[in-house]
Each structure stands twice: as C-alpha cells, then as structure tokens.
Design goal:
alpha/beta; 34 helices; binds phosphoenolpyruvate; eight-stranded parallel β-barrel; Glucose Oxidase, domain 1; D-amino Acid Aminotransferase, Chain A, domain 1; 842 residues; binds magnesium ion
C-alpha cells in the first residue's frame, strides 16, 4: 500500500480525506488525529475501494497489513457518509490465530487471550461465514474451554479449518462488509432514511487497543451531556476487561464514569485515565464544535481514543446542546438556530409517547395535532364533560366533531375522529387548544351507537377502556402508553429569543378566547392574526341566546336579541385587548353558517323548543329550512353580513366599545383590526365598510371619544385573490385564509378530504396534503396574484396569511418571499413558526 493512494490511506493529519469519499467516521478520526489524540493507527478505505472489493477486486492484503507491523490485531468499522444510514457491524480482533493466541497468552494471560480468540471466531463465523449464532449455543462460558469448542463447531459447520492467515481473515471481513452494504435490504433501509441510491460505504481498519488483559484494561463511552435533557453531566459506562461497546451492554458490572451513589465509578477506579478521557472529550467539543461521545479503551492503564460520535439526542437535548455551544462561544447563535429542526420543537411543547417504550399500535390516522395523551374512551361531548367533572382523563371519539362538541373537546385529553383532514373542525380546534388529535382514522370501524370501535386487526375497544392518542405520529395505541412531559426549559426560551432577534417576518397567533390569547402571549406571538369570533358563542348561556337570534322573525327581533349578546362580546374583546397588551388583535366578523349553532337531533329540538317556548314542530321546521346542501359554500361569511347586517353591527360596536374600555386602562391606545370573511366581490366590502364606519361614528358620538381601527379582508375565495386590485384600496390589510382558499381552489372539501387524501399522496397525485403544506404552485399562484394586485392598487396594504399553513415552515418561506408582513397560526405552532422564520433569515 502506498501512503498516497487516495483510496486506501493511512489516516494522518494531511492525508486527503473527505466525508463524501471516505465517510464520516474516517473524516472524524482524521480530525482526532490532527488534535493529537491517542488514536490507534488507522487506515481508511474509500467508497470506491469498498465498491471494488464488493465486486471481487481485492486490494493487496500484504501491503494493507504492512503499516500495522508484526502480528497485528485489528478491527474494521463502517464509515458511511451519514451515520444514520447505518452500515454493517464492526468486527474486532482480526488477526488472532493459533500462533498469535499463544503469544498473547504469554503476554496477557491464558484466559484473556482465549477470550479474544473466542470472540473473533464467533464474530467471523456469524458476520463473515454467515453461520447461525445458534451454532455456538452450547459453547462453554469459560473462554479457555469455550475456544476449543467454538473452533470445532466452526469446522463442523463449514468443513474448513478456521482461517489462520491474517491477510485472508481481513480480506474476508472487508469483502463481507462491502457486500452487506450492497444488499437489497440494507439499501432499502438506508434509502428510507434519505440516502441516495448510490450512497457509498467507507471502511476503517484500526489497530486494536486491547481492553482485555493485565492492569486496568477495559472499554467504554463518555459524553459530557445527558442525551435526554442536554444537561451538562458526564454520562457513559465503562466495563473492565471488555471491548467495543460491551460496556453499554454490560449490565450491573459496568461502572459509572463519575462518582455515583448507584455504584463504583471509573473516576474512583482510574482517576488519571478518567481525567484524560474527559479532557479529550472536552477538546473534541471545542474543536469539532459539537457535543461528542468518545469511544475509548484503556489498555493496561493507557488511554486510547477509538472514535468520536455525535451525541445522540432528542429534541429537548438538541436545543440545550445548541444553546450551550453558542453560549460557550463555540458556535455563533445563527448556527445554533440552524441546528434545531423547527418541527422537533413540538416534542418540547407537548407530552409525547416515550420513544423507548413498547408501542401497541391499534390503528393509524392523520396526525392532526401533536402531543400524546391517554384516557378512557367516550363517545359524546356530554360524556367527556362528565368524565372531566369526575377528574378522569378521557379520549373523545367522534365520527367527526362539530361546534356542538367544543365543550366536550375542552374537557377531553385527546380527540379521535373517523373523518376529516388537516383542516377539519377537530384538527383546527385540537391544534388551537394544544389537544392531541388523530383524525381520518377510517380504518377503524366506528360503531358509535354501540359505543365501540373495531380496530383493523379485529380488536375491539369499548367505551370506558383506555387508549392513547399519539397526535404527533397519527397513531392510536392500546392502553396507557408511558409519556414524556413537555419541557419548555430555559434553553428553549433562550433559543426562541435568539430566533426573534434574527427573523424578519412576524408571527402572530390564531386565538379565539382569553385562554388562547394567554397562550399566544406566553409563546410570544406578535399579536393575534385571527380571532374566529364564532368560537365565542359555544358556551351554554350564549348558545341559547344565539339560537334565539337565529330564530328571530324580524330584523327588530334579531336586533333585540343581539343587544343581549353585545355585553358578552364586548367583555370578550376587552379581555383580548388587555391580555395582548397593545399587540395588534385582528377580529374576524362572524363566519359560519347559522345552522351550525342549531341542535341536530330530536332531543336537541325538544330542548330548544322548551327554551324558546315554541312548538317542537316549529323548531324542527326552522332547523330544516336553514339546512343547506353545501353549507361551506352557502350562507356564511360576509354573506351573513350582507343579509343580516345586525350581526356585524353588534360585533363592530362590541369591538369599538371594548377598544375604548381597554384604551382607558392601558398606556397605548388599542387599534383593533376588523376582518371580513369569505369576500368575493368589492361591493360586499363597500357595504360592510359603510356600516362599520357608521357604527364607529355612532360610538365616537355617544362616548365623545376618538379611536382608530383598521378594516381588512380575508382573501379566501379565488375570486377575492383575482380581484384583489379592486378590493385593496378599500382596506388596510389583506389576510389570506388558505384553508378555504385551498378548499375552493381544488374544489376539495376540507372536511371530507381525509377519506382519500392518503391514496392521493401515496400515488403521487398530490406531493403532500395541500391542507397541510401549502400548494405553492396552484394556491400559491393565487396568493402571488392577490398580493401583487393588492399591493399595486394600495402600496400600504399589509399582507399576511392566517390559514393553518401559517405555522408550516415551508409555507412561511413562501410567504416571506411574497413579501408578507406576518404569518398567523395556532398558539402551539407559534414557536415552530418563530424558529422556522428565523432560519430563513440566517
Ligand atoms: C381559512 O379559511 O383559511 C381560515 C383561516 O378560516 P377558517 O379556517 O375559520 O375557515
Ligand atoms: Mg375560512
């Protein structure tokens, strides 16, 4: 072997070596060599060299062995470009044979030498000769006796003597590892993790540091942080008389590293070695700019560093590690921001199923709202409320949810529905209140009358039985799965503050109630981008008044009932203004079809008839009359404002009166934003604007006080986007409601799409669920057109997005490029959006 052969190279500080040609392990070892750490002599084989070996073209083994001197003991480990892509198992102790065994026995004792030989025979048999591990089942535990038995078992199975030539041994190990990488299963596994089809494997051949032998000998791993929390704390294990990663499997015999009440430690056993390993690990952290796990061997008291691996970490630890590296001046803050995957923050914001726990999956659906919770299955909102009153966590199971279920949803720990997609009612509310939610679980048979669920594998779950909803992964699990608590710790807050200093697009929250607004403020949203006022009417006392309003025969009757709703709305808005402390609050005027507020079954009709003092038949008739074939495209949004203007008048008055109330107390005057939903024509805006202005004038006159407000339009019909040029001059802002806009652009019901969405995505009809990830081609084109035409006609118009896509990192990138001022999303998605927005500006 020539030292300058780029494909088979001794690792020196200057040898040409790259992650993309020799793999991450080889590159990392070179960095450790440059740091002058005690790394055993190592040769790296490039992707090309390994590829040729797999094809049967073996390198000159004598030349390959030459740098290791007489009778070396070696190990071979994989070195792929990305450690996540896996690779064949490492093989240790290559080079041991009868002769070497005899010499070793003299040097390190009979037992240790036999142990090393026995380990190699077994590893070679299993990984190279591909024998069944059962072949060694009866081999004695004692290595001296076991060795002879293992050699005989090998010969019996293969009809060959165990190879004695180190060149043959090494060649066979290299060939088998190279071929294992090219196998179909390995290829499919790594491709599933994002590896390209032609991903290469490098191999490193390293002189073995003997963890088995006289004096203090053993092996272990050390890292300076806890992988679950990122807290600074030396963790790892050490096992005397062991090799490789034995210490991690070492059970009770393995030592802790630092002094530990649970048992003896390496620090006590071998203080100098411990201090040296710690110093090396610290040096790696500083120079490799990463939290590393050190793989080490102590050979008769002498420390060897075999490898450094990026510390495995969950999301919480990833945040803590990135922040600590930046605070220690090792990486810049911008890099810390880039090192955390925004979506991973969900793990910190919600409880999660412990990833290490066994999962008994009953069924899958759409992961509509992240987090996990367990509870007893209930099938109605009333049962959910009853369970909450008893202090019992419950999972509310519905075919789909409707506004009537809101109180039950608040009472439940999690939601499971048969129907619906990412923007169905259950999904939107679930995300809004941080409730784990799986929707569209259509593989489950929902027998709600019989109060049971039949799972795809035939298992039945009845009311009262416990299940766990994993809204992060879209799974329904049997029983009560172990959960990890949410962890919004100091590192999280620090990272978020850095994100805010960096980003150039604001993040607001969609918040409907004071509780939502509190959340929004806690998550440091820069205001409320969408308050869906209809969500304020689902409490019992209000619902009855609302129903009276819907049943009012004349405009006067309706106005009289609205008078009673006015103080309630005024109090709601005043609360929101107070909570948001001068941040902008955008209130959307009433949007949904009125019949959503009416009971759907006869019992509900009877109850309502009692409350309104009307015959049941009247109620039933009116409910039927209000029914629509396609309510999402019917009498809702601004259409209500045009046909029943008293509702918007009441809301505008409540907003203005609350503005004056809140401004009196606060320092800066509140400037409310009023948004008109479902607009499709300029004239709609003119009509509503005239009335809102008139209400403002009336309130100013009555109170003898001035105030300002901003009126805007929600662009959520394709026509509003196309005609933005004529709408924008009338308003201060345009906010794109991409839920309805997606629904209408695709002609795809947001409440029914769940049924076929997975088939569509699987067959590549749509690259993703467009309710989840903004369709930048189609819906995005309407956004661009709306933004351009709106801005051309009114250069001051503020542009934003308030559909569910507002919390999605890819969609935020689109909105930023389109020049939007802010995105608005559910409170729990605000941190993800803040980080994603910051990453765009780094
Ligand atoms: C929208 O349509 O995008 C929107 C935000 O409004 P809603 O989801 O209430 O229809
Ligand atoms: Mg909408």
């Amino acid at each position: 072997m020539q030292q300058y052969d780029p494909d088979i190279t001794l690792i020196t500080p200057t040898a040409p070596m790259h992650t993309g040609t020799h793999g991450g392990r080889a590159k990392c070892l070179q960095r450790l060599v440059r740091l002058d750490l005690p790394v055993p002599r190592t040769i790296a084989l490039s992707f090309d060299a390994v590829h040729r070996i797999a094809a049967g073209e073996m390198p000159d083994m004598a030349a390959l062995l030459a740098p290791f001197g007489e009778m070396p003991l070696l190990c071979v480990r994989p070195s792929s470009e990305d450690p996540d892509w896996g690779g064949p198992n490492a093989v240790l102790n290559i080079g041991v044979n009868d002769a070497r065994h005899a010499v070793l026995a003299e040097k390190i004792g009979q037992r240790a030498a036999a142990d090393i030989y026995l380990r190699f025979v077994q590893a070679y048999a299993i990984h190279v000769a591909r024998l069944d591990p059962d072949v060694f089942e009866d081999v004695a535990q004692d290595p001296v006796q076991g060795l002879g038995e293992a050699l005989r078992a090998y010969e019996d199975e293969t009809d060959e003597e165990f190879p004695q030539d180190p060149g043959v041994q090494l060649g066979q190990v290299l060939r088998s590892m190279a071929r294992a990488w090219e196998g179909t299963t390995a290829r499919l596994l790594r491709q599933a993790k994002g590896a390209p089809a032609d991903a290469g494997l490098g191999l490193v051949v390293q002189e073995l540091a003997l963890g088995i032998g006289p004096g203090e000998s053993g092996s272990g791993v050390m890292q300076l942080v806890d992988s679950r929390t990122g807290a600074r704390q030396i963790t790892g294990r050490y096992l005397s008389q062991s090799q490789g990663r034995d210490a991690l499997r070492g059970g009770e015999d393995a030592l802790y590293l630092t002094r530990d009440p649970r048992g003896p430690s390496l620090e006590e056993l071998a203080p100098a070695a411990f201090a040296e390993i710690r110093a090396h690990t610290l040096l790696m952290r500083e120079t490799l700019r990463e939290e590393m796990q050190t793989e080490f061997t102590i050979e008769d008291g002498r420390v060897w560093i075999l490898d450094g691996i990026r510390v495995a970490r969950n999301a919480r630890a990833a945040v803590a590690i990135a922040v600590a590296l930046a605070e220690d001046g090792i990486i810049p803050r911008e890099e810390a921001l880039m090192r955390v995957e925004p979506r991973a923050l969900n793990e910190l914001l919600h409880r999660q199923v412990d990833p290490e726990a066994r999962r008994d999956v009953l069924a899958h659906g759409i992961a509509a709202s992240p987090g996990a919770a367990s509870g007893k299955v209930v099938f109605t909102a009333a049962e959910a409320q009853a369970a909450a009153a008893r202090g019992e966590p419950c999972v509310l199971v519905r075919r789909e949810t409707s506004p009537e279920d809101i109180r039950g949803m608040h009472a439940a720990s999690a939601i499971l529905t048969e129907r619906g997609g990412m923007t169905s009612h259950a999904a939107v509310i679930g995300r809004g209140i941080g409730l784990p939610c799986v929707v569209g679980a259509s593989d489950i048979r929902f027998q709600t009358r019989r109060k049971m669920l039949t799972m795809p594998d035939g298992r039945v779950v009845k009311a009262g039985e416990t299940i766990t909803i994993d809204g992060t992964n879209g799974a329904v699990l049997a029983g009560e799965a172990p959960l990890l608590e949410a962890a919004r710790d100091a590192a999280f807050q620090t990272l978020m503050n850095w994100a805010d200093d960096t980003r150039d697009i604001a993040v607001r929250a969609n918040a409907d109630t004071p509780a939502d607004a509190e959340l929004a403020r806690n998550f440091k949203a820069r205001g409320i981008g969408l308050c869906r006022t209809e969500h304020m009417f689902f409490e019992d006392d209000r619902l009855t008044v609302m129903r009276e309003m819907i049943f009012a025969d004349t405009s006067e009757d309706r106005a009289a009932v609205l008078e009673r709703l006015l103080p309630m709305q005024r109090a709601d808005f005043a609360d929101l203004f107070r909570i948001m402390q001068g941040q902008p609050v955008c209130i959307r005027l009433f949007d949904p079809p009125l019949h959503e507020f009416l009971p759907t079954d006869r019992a509900g009709h009877v109850q309502l008839a009692g409350a309104l003092d009307l015959p049941v038949s009247d109620v039933t008739r009116r409910v039927e009359a209000l029914g629509e074939y396609n309510p999402m495209l019917g009498m809702r949004g601004v259409r209500l404002g045009i046909t029943m203007p008293e509702i918007y008048d009441m809301q505008a008055r409540a907003i203005f009166e609350a503005t004056l109330e809140a401004s009196r107390e606060g320092e800066a005057p509140v400037v409310p934003e009023i948004m008109i939903p479902l607009v499709s024509a300029r004239r709609e805006v003119e009509i509503v604007k005239t009335r809102v202005d008139a209400v403002a004038a009336a309130v100013r006159g009555e109170r003898q006080r001035d105030f300002a407000y901003r009126l805007g339009v929600m662009v959520e019909t394709p026509r509003a986007a196309l005609r933005a040029g004529e709408i924008a001059p009338l308003v201060s802002f345009l906010s794109f409601g991409t839920n309805d806009l997606t629904q209408m652009t695709y002609g795809l019901s947001r409440d029914d799409a769940g049924r076929f969405m997975s088939a569509y995505v699987q067959q590549g009809v749509y690259p993703e669920d467009p309710f989840h990830v903004l369709d930048t081609d189609g819906v995005g084109e309407l956004l661009r057109i709306g933004a351009e035409r709106g801005r051309a006609a009114n250069p001051d118009v503020v542009l934003s997005i308030c559909g569910e896509h507002g919390g999605n990192p890819e969609s935020i990138s689109f909105c930023r490029e389109a020049g939007f001022t802010y995105v608005s999303c559910s409170p729990f998605r605000v941190p993800v959006a803040r980080l994603a927005a910051a990453q765009l500006s780094v």
